[in-house]
């Protein structure tokens, strides 16, 4: 079997001949063939091997094999060890996802620091077909059927047009050696079954399956980019960036044809799964909320509001003393002594220094909070104040309170409390400015 | 097995309870189950059966079976015979395509004339999954993966959420009778193989495959409508309707992101297959043409021109005498006698009646044609005239010539010939007006 690799490179990646290339190598047949083909094509390559330490001695054997291969090919080789399981645990992702992230992150780092032009990976047409079928079996959308692209930034996949059979035949005919991956990780069960039992049936129906599948992939990728282009063109018309995330004017959404399809595209990357609930927000009562694991979509009066679910909101921050500038996650507090009152914006207030008890605290509001709004007599529930000020839910949630001895000093950005203000007895006036 | 048909109808097609419905029935298990379910749900149905006369006695048996079924269900039945093979031959399409066209055309006719509200067909989830896989095997694009929709105008498919297994189990448990289709038409080979060998493997990997596939289908359909919406929004910006078809300004096309993907969407319905050639037209020399079976895409100086391939162009038409109005396929010729010359537009000329020899002919131009352009001395090649007038290829091809004794009298819409014009010896002036 002749693998027309050089012609293929010329046609698909005409620039690689004069480039420095990093070839990702596992030691398996695909990447070994890729390295050999590159060497035969006189490309300027180095190898990069990740040791994920997931298969004990076998992982060490892979590493040793790659070192020998680099020696035999007379090319430079980079090897890096990863604590894959610990990383997966800490990021709460699967082992496969972790390996993927670690791998591509390291490749990119190598590429940047050592001035490689491209990274080659050995994905082939069957990989894409298998992924397509796995996603089909699990249920998916267009994004799950488009597969790995031949070119994605600096990452090129020069074997993507070739089939596993072609690559393996080349390896046998060239008497290459490689490492078999004995792992039977659960994630591989479905892939193996599809590889061994489903794809051969499809190949019986069309021996040119992989070629036609490459065309299918190209068409699907084109459709996918058009959907993205459309959403990108719509986005500035319908979405507005806010402190808390994005707002979407419902009236505007409703003018768009197939608004549900648009909403799916807009919100799918935020982890939503209950699509009927999401779609029904357009007609829902204000206050209705749909949650994903990471985000919320809130029906406000005339808008949909998209915000992150943040776990940091429950924390309380302290301002120990009136240092000149205090930096906290939500912004910067700057204290100055002032001789007299002056006109200021919403982000500044004047305080009587003697009325404050340090440390001050900065926290989010809670049900039951009340304060003495400056310019009003007596106290008011904070929830009532928010309602009168017509704050949306995320605006309320995004609002910070400055407190002294757990009494509200300032509903930051909205209103000062009268109790801490300057009066005839004030000896030291503090001007406090908040910059988000 | 309980088939929650009534609930499903309520949820998906709330209007059908008060409607007159035509159920398409082949006699196979799917449509028999559909008819029974409709009857049990107290819907107001009639049956419609097509006899395509493709399987001899079996076709007659199907027809007899449907008549009995209608009797048993106490519903009205319509039966129509089709000359399917002759129709396929005359339209140069496959037998399956022919049957499809004939069937839907007849259903629609019945619906309109007899005031049915909806047509029900018995497609189920496996049909869509099989079609998806068949198209995948053959090579396809998004349009080949989106499957039959649950609702398409007046055509509803109330079984589309159910699997073949559910339907067959219902048929067995309800002791229904139906006709087995023994046809082994070649088009069925692939479907049977996918049904019997591929789908069962996928079901082993995910017993809920058909449910997740229905979701996949919904997502893909949504993506497909967004692509259409995007192209519809772009179309008026980049395309201009012309007498000969459409023109697309290349400069404008080049401002669009992912222009190749857009071109694929724009031109795929015109039968083009050589996509690289199509894409390369953007940079090609003027005059380069890409053909489909029915259309051409022409690189003009600053535009792409899309035209149909018409076989009528080679005909010659005759104008036997100067009747008042002569109607021909390309337009209408109106002769009037005139007392004197007057100011006229491009669509009228004045002629000396005595110089004309009837019958006149109307034809397209040919290489080698020449004439004596009015207002110029001597003769000129028509090709040179077109070039000087900067006509595009389809404009040239769309241009008709009026001839007398095969001498050009009028390059219609562009220039009269001096030899047939009015002079001092003219006794009868004819004014000829052409309306396209």
TrEMBL record, chains A, B:
Chief location bin: cytoplasm
GO cellular component, one term: cytoplasm
InterPro entries in UniProt: Lysidine-tRNA-synth_C, Rossmann-like_a/b/a_fold, TilS/TtcA_N, tRNA_Ile_lys_synt, tRNA_Ile_lys_synt_N
Enzyme class: ligase
Keyword vocabulary terms for this entry: ATP-binding, Cytoplasm, Ligase, Nucleotide-binding, tRNA processing
SMART domains attached to this UniProt entry: TilS_C (SM00977)
Subcellular location: Cytoplasm
Plastid in keyword set: no
Pfam families found in the cross-reference section: ATP_bind_3, TilS_C
EC number, as in UniProt: 6.3.4.19
Reactions that this protein is recorded to catalyse: cytidine(34) in tRNA(Ile2) + L-lysine + ATP = lysidine(34) in tRNA(Ile2) + AMP + diphosphate + H(+)
GO molecular function: ATP binding; tRNA(Ile)-lysidine synthase activity
Gene Ontology terms describing biological process: tRNA modification
Lysidine-tRNA(Ile) synthetase C-terminal domain ranges (all copies): 360-432
Annotated residues for binding of ATP: 26-31
The keyword tRNA processing is assigned to this record: yes
Function: Ligates lysine onto the cytidine present at position 34 of the AUA codon-specific tRNA(Ile) that contains the anticodon CAU, in an ATP-dependent manner. Cytidine is converted to lysidine, thus changing the amino acid specificity of the tRNA from methionine to isoleucine.
Protein family: Belongs to the tRNA(Ile)-lysidine synthase family.
NCBIfam families per record: lysidine_TilS_C, lysidine_TilS_N
Domain characteristics, as noted in the entry: The N-terminal region contains the highly conserved SGGXDS motif, predicted to be a P-loop motif involved in ATP binding.
Name this protein carries in UniProt: tRNA(Ile)-lysidine synthase
Species of origin: Salinimicrobium catena
